[in-house]
Amino acid sequence: MANGFRISAPAPAVAKRANKVVSLAGATTPRAKAIALFVFVRDSIKFGFTNRFDAASPEETLEAGMGHCNPQGALFASLLQAQGIPARQRFVNLSNGVLRGVLSPPPARLLHSYVEVKLDGQVGDGDPPGSSELGQDSLGWIRVDGYIADPALFHAARARLVKENMTEGYGVHVNGANEWDGTLDSFCQMAEETTQVTETFDAFDEPGLFYSSPENFQRLPWPVRLVLGWIVKEPNSSIDAIRAEFVPPSVEKQTTFVVWSKPPPPV
Questions:
Q1: pLDDT of the chain along its 267 residues, tens only?
Q2: What is the number of alpha carbons within 13 Å of residue 105 lying toward its C-beta?
Q3: SS3 breakdown of the chain: % helix, strand, coil, rounded to 5?
Q4: Beta partners for residue 200, in sequence order
Q5: Measured between alpha carbons, how far is 90 from 127 in angstroms, rounded to an integer?
Q6: Helix (H/G/I), strand (E/B), else coil: 37
Q7: Domain over 12-243 is classified CATH 3.40.1710
Q8: How many Cα neighbours within 13 Å face the side chain of 46?
Q9: Can you list the positions of beta strands (E) in the chain?
Q10: Cα separation of 187 and 145, whole Å?
Q11: Rounded distance, CA 155 to CA 226, Å?
Q12: Would you kindly state where each structural domain of the chain is located, as residue ranges?
């Protein structure tokens, strides 16, 4: 399962895509660039499972246009690093509720990750207690996993949760968010940290070091890896079915704006 890519050394294809995304967005500041890259991953990398699973590199995830939280996070962090924005990947174990309705039944626990981003002048919640593989300070890191679910999936899944009076499932948390302003933490799946997180691990620049460690309970034996492409078809179909339930907001009601060529008369 281990792979040798480093988030801080993006592949040429990843760096090229990062340049294209920020250019099309007209983003010039680190914050604007980070937001543009967040939106790109959220909208262009569908939440789902590939036959590479956690072993997918950022370049492979970019090419597939699909990934779950861990490959998506590695790609987002690599895109940020390609623009000179400090980013790293933090691993945690979650309770299994967030994948209810996607995996039947879901495993007893889930290996999850989010991205920590450092933007000048912005302060997130920083590191959880404990050490970091990168040995960096705990101030100024903004924590993000809001890129995991695209708008159609997020809103359709959340509508199901509201209807069922459930807090999590279908890949999202009912109190989660898939928007990010570049200043505050934003979680789509890990929205209730105190009740969802069962164990927190280090932050990594080279995720393969964690995947090959004894702390990673999610290492897949080789017989499973051989048939993984077949195994992931069912959860991916479930995710697509949820996504298809999304109904865009009505555009029938239009708001009329009056543009004044001079200040409006006093009331």
A1: 445 789 999 999 999 999 999 999 999 999 999 999 999 999 999 999 999 999 999 999 999 999 999 999 999 999 999 999 999 999 999 998 999 999 887 788 899 999 999 997 554 444 443 333 433 345 689 999 999 999 999 999 999 999 999 999 999 999 999 999 999 999 999 998 888 999 999 899 999 888 888 787 777 666 667 666 778 899 999 999 999 999 887 654 444 444 444 444 554
A2: 6
A3: 35, 15, 45
A4: 92
A5: 9
A6: helix
A7: no
A8: 17
A9: 46-47, 66-67, 87-95, 109-118, 141-144, 168-169, 172-173, 197-204
A10: 5
A11: 34
A12: 12-243
Distance CA 81, CA 108 (A): 34
> Residue 172 belongs to what H/E stretch?
strand 172-173
Q: Are 176 and 97 in contact (CB under 8 A)?
A: no
- Which residue bears the tokens 């593989």? 133
Structure tokens at 256: 């009329």
